[in-house]
Amino acid sequence: MYGNDFPAPDDASGGGLLGEVEAAEAALREAAARARRFGAPTPDADLDAYFADVIEADQKIEPRDWMPEAYRRTLIRQIAQHAHSEIIGMQPEGNWISRAPSLKRKAILLAKVQDEAGHGLYLYAAAETLGISRDELVDLLLSGRQKYSSIFNYPTLTWADVGVIGWLVDGAAIVNQVPLCRCSYGPYARAMIRVCKEESFHQRQGYEILHVLAHGTAEQKAMAQDAVDRWWYPSLAMFGPPDGDSTHSAQSMAWKIKRFSNDELRQRFVDMCVQQAEVLGLTLPDEDLRWNDERGAYDYTQPDYDELMQVIKGNGPCNRQRMEHRRRAHTDGAWVREAAAAYAAKREQQKEKVAA
Ligand code: FAQ
Predict the structure, then answer these.
(1) Are 2 and 11 in contact (CB under 8 A)?
(2) Which residues have CB under 6 Å of ligand 1?
(3) A Gene Ontology biological process annotation (predicted)?
């Protein structure tokens, strides 16, 4: 039943995004096979030039390789922000687990929210390969020194919001993350391949929820439309500030961490959503949305970037609530961490005893 009785989002866009993930995975294998050509740099090598050559050749930088300090710091910032987003991102949908309209919906939503926790863990593990510990990263989030995505500071007011998060928020996440499967840093690229494959299912489940609502009663359709109206612009803002105001894009693209600019990805997302909204029978809330033959893309109204900056600074509708919840969960989970550490120490002792 699910996803097969109407065109699913990735079918609607020609199956292109998942195909790109497959291609990135194949490229990763190829790069690994070619890696020997470079070997380790000689003791007197110019390390900056060596690093530039590896990037130029589209090889992957691995944790053991030399890398410029600024590259390492940029990756920690981006991967950590991404990991925190997955963890905080469990809250808006988690809010509906106990109120899902059927047992089946509840089971699906539970699995999806658990997947987000898994994504957070892959990403924390990828960040740890850069020489920072998970405890430090969690501390940076809880003390407000690292960010998470603006989108998770908006409330989920109705069940239709769960559908829209799947369709638009996971959809924007996929458009942003598929190119990250080709990121120059190996552990991040590999984590992204796995994450994108799972995200594509997340997007389908949201799309299916909306499809059912949009083809249900007039009240259900109105609820779906209202959710699309509230989430459209915050979803566009997920891609970050416009290119002219993006502080990190140029350097991150030169290092092949980012492969496309914020505006390029935003445009790609808009172009994809127009067709999908038509299939759903819902309207995107933008009167100026129209095809531009010359550009070969849709013209659209930009999101409110002042609002984005306010949300990033901590002044969005739910910032305080999200952080309070996260801090409380961290404190409440202290006994689990202590028990796990005690168990690990006990096993270590037992191993030593057997070895003695
Ligand atoms: N929110 O120079 P740029 C998900 C900050 S998907 C908050 O353009 P950059 C799945 C940026 O950090 C969401 N902050 O920066 C899911 C920088 O601040 P800084 C997570 C934002 O890094 C679905 C400043 O503005 N995905 O979780 C945002 O080159 C459903 C200047 O910006 C990722 O993190 C924003 N929207 O590009 C989970 C993807 N935009 O650090 C659960 C990986 C910008 O200088 C449920 N990240 N900023 O103080 C990226 O691709 C990039 O980091 C961008 C920003 C595109 C987000």
Answers:
(1) no
(2) 77-78, 81-82, 85-86, 89, 116, 147, 149-150, 165, 169-170, 173, 176, 237-241, 246-249, 252, 258, 262, 312
(3) phenylacetate catabolic process
